[in-house]
Amino acid sequence: MDLVLPRECGGCGAASVAWCARCADALAQPPRAVRPAVTVGVPCFALGSYAGPHRAAVVAAKERGRRDLAAPLGRALAGAIASLRDSGDLDPPELNPLVLVPAPSRRRAARRRGGDPVVRLCLAAASAFRASAASVSEVVSVARVLTVDGGVRDSVGLSAAQRAENLAGRIGVRGARVPPGPVVLVDDVLTTGTTAAESVAALRRAGVAVDAVVVIGAVR
Q: Which architecture, in CATH terms, is 28-218?
C-alpha cells in the first residue's frame, strides 16, 4: 500500500506513518502565551511557533487534503486546553462545560479544501475530551457561530494594516446560541491577531464573552 499511496508524517515527512511520535511530542508541550501585533482583548496561547511540525501539519491539513491530521491536532489542542485549565488560565470543568468556537473561514476557501479545517480541528478536540471525560460536565461543545463576509480577500501576503482593513466589521455571529461556559476561540495560525480580534469583538457584540484564544502555531 505504501508503494501505491505512500504515507508520510504530516509534521516531518517521516515515511510509513501518518503522524510520528516525535511530532506528537513537539505539539504536546505546554501552550505559551503570545502577544500578536493587534490587540485581541483576551489572552492568546499557542501550542508553539508557526514553524517545524506545527507549520507543516497546518499546511498539510489546509492545502494538501490531509484530513487525517485533524485527529492528532485535535488531541494536541485538547491537551493544551487541559493544561490551561490546570494552570488556572481557564475555569475548571466543574464550573461549566467548555465551548470551542472555530475562527471563521471564507466559504470559497472551505469549499476548495473540502470543508473547514478549523471546524474539523475543534470537532476532533471535542471528541478527544469526550473520550477522556470522567463526567458530563467535562464534555466540550463546538459552537460554529462565526461567519465572514463574502467580500473578504485571502489574507496571504497582506500587511497588518491591510489585514485589519480587509476584515474590519466583516465577521458576524449567526443566530445559533452559544452555550454558557468558558469560551475558547480556536484557529490554526495566529499571524497579526486581526482575525482573532475581529472574532472576539463580534462575539462580544452578540453578548458572548471569550475567555481565551488558542492556536496551533503563532507567527510571533
A: 3-Layer(aba) Sandwich (3.40)
Cβ partners under 8 Å of residue 115, min gap 6: 67
Indicate whether this model's pTM tops 0.85. Answer: yes
Closest CA to 39 of 218, 196, 162: 196
Furthest C-alpha separation in the chain = 54
Picking from 184, 43, 208, 206, the residue whose alpha carbon sits closest to that of residue 103 is 184
Condensed to tens digits (0 to 9), the pLDDT of residues 174-211 reads 877 888 889 999 999 999 999 999 999 999 999 999 99
- For 194, the enclosing helix (H) or strand (E) is helix 194-205
Q: 204: exposed, middle or buried (C-beta count within 10 Å: 0-12, 13-18, 19+)? A: middle
- Across-strand partners of 171? 148
- Order of all β-strands in the sheet with 183-190: 32-34, 44-46, 212-218, 183-190, 99-102, 141-142
